[in-house]
TrEMBL record:
It comes from the Bacteria. This is Phenylalanine--tRNA ligase alpha subunit. Tetramer of two alpha and two beta subunits. NCBIfam families: pheS. Residues 104-312 form the Aminoacyl-transfer RNA synthetases class-II family profile domain.
Length: 336
């Protein structure tokens, strides 16, 4: 029986066969079990001898079964590991990722420059009162300059803010006479027909500095610093006299054309200059309405359009690209 069992076990090549043989020899109705069960009919002398032989045979069969069993387990583990092997040298699959929108990116860059110059960031509501949007900025009712900015009115006294300048007044009222150095980014609204250079909604960044002895030269130096960080060391600015009811004197600021470096091209209409923002010394009446004494302090303010800064920075010819969310346009800024 032993020889037969061992012979059969040698030929086993899968776990199922192994189990069948275990049952055949060692199971409840197995051959060996049968023999050991028949020992009751043996004499007292024969019993221990046959019992001993039976146990030896059982042990031998079990040993071989265990060996086989372990071999099968090892082979199975081996196979699984081989199937799970990963080739770490294969190039990965590129996953489509989002990117910061170019307008947010440019706004962040502008903010970074001014934060680097010691400015804090202030915010105000997009739905604004006539008082903050116009009145406190030295634009009384029926002032002709109100037409400069066609407004979306909600009620007679409430409108969508047409610029970020109302945040100037809100900040002054909050700061209660203390020196101010803030920028105010945000959305603004004007009743324009949308085209390549106009949008009913766009983004501005306002700047306001108030304190003792703030001068026009401080404004000019600040703007030069900003422009050179934004467009490169070679960038220059020029100030042209202008008019805003809330600044006196007022100026419009041009930067040397980023396309041709000031030599003249289509982008700057051969002038070498591109207009980027409006600015000036805070009007004494505006300081007063903000709770500051024009005899004690002075200030400068500026306001720029984020879209315009971005158009110039990237040489984009149509502002509508910023709003239509075409992946082909937006994805170009993911790597910049
Ligand atoms: N608020 C002005 C505009 O929207 C810009 C400006 C801001 C001008 C601050 C002067 C000072 O056109």
């Amino acid at each position: 029986l032993r020889a037969e069992a061992l012979q059969e076990l040698q030929q086993v090549d899968n776990p199922q066969q192994l189990n069948d043989l275990r049952v055949k020899y060692l199971g409840k109705k197995g051959a060996l079990t049968e023999i050991l069960r028949g020992m009751g009919g043996l004499s007292a002398e024969e019993r221990p001898i046959i019992g001993q032989v039976g146990n030896d045979v059982r042990a031998a069969i079990e040993t071989v079964i265990d060996e086989k069993q372990n071999a099968f387990l090892a082979a199975e583990t081996e196979n699984r590991l081989r199937a799970e092997t990963i080739d770490v040298t294969l190039p990965g699959k590129a996953l489509p990722t989002g990117a910061v929108h170019p307008l947010n990116k440019v706004a962040q860059e502008i903010e970074d420059v001014f934060v680097g110059l010691g400015y804090s960031i202030a915010e105000g509501p997009e739905v604004e009162t006539d008082y903050f949007n116009f009145e406190a900025l030295n634009l009384p009712k029926n002032h002709p300059a109100r037409d400069m900015q066609d407004s979306f009115y909600i009620t007679e006294d409430i409108l969508m803010r047409t610029h970020t300048s109302p945040v100037q007044v809100r900040t002054m009222q909050q700061m209660n006479g203390k020196p101010i150095k803030v920028i105010c980014p945000g959305k603004v609204y004007r009743r324009d027909d949308d085209d390549a250079t106009h949008s009913f909604q766009f983004n501005q960044i306002e700047g306001l500095v108030v304190g003792p002895n703030i001068r026009m030269s401080d404004l000019k130096g600040t703007l030069l610093q900003f422009v050179q960080q934004m467009y490169g060391e070679q960038a220059q600015i020029r100030l042209r006299p202008s008019f805003f009811p809330f600044t006196e004197p007022s100026a419009e600021v041009d930067v040397t054309c980023v396309q041709c470096g000031g030599h003249g091209c289509r982008m700057c209409k051969q002038t070498g200059w591109l207009e980027i923002l409006g600015c000036g010394m805070v009007h004494p009446r505006v300081l007063e309405m903000g709770g500051y004494d024009p005899a004690e302090v002075s200030g400068f303010a500026f306001g720029m359009g984020v879209e315009r800064i971005a158009l110039l920075k990237y040489g984009i010819d149509d502002i509508r690209h910023f709003y239509t969310n075409d992946q082909r346009f937006l994805s170009q800024f993911a790597r910049m």
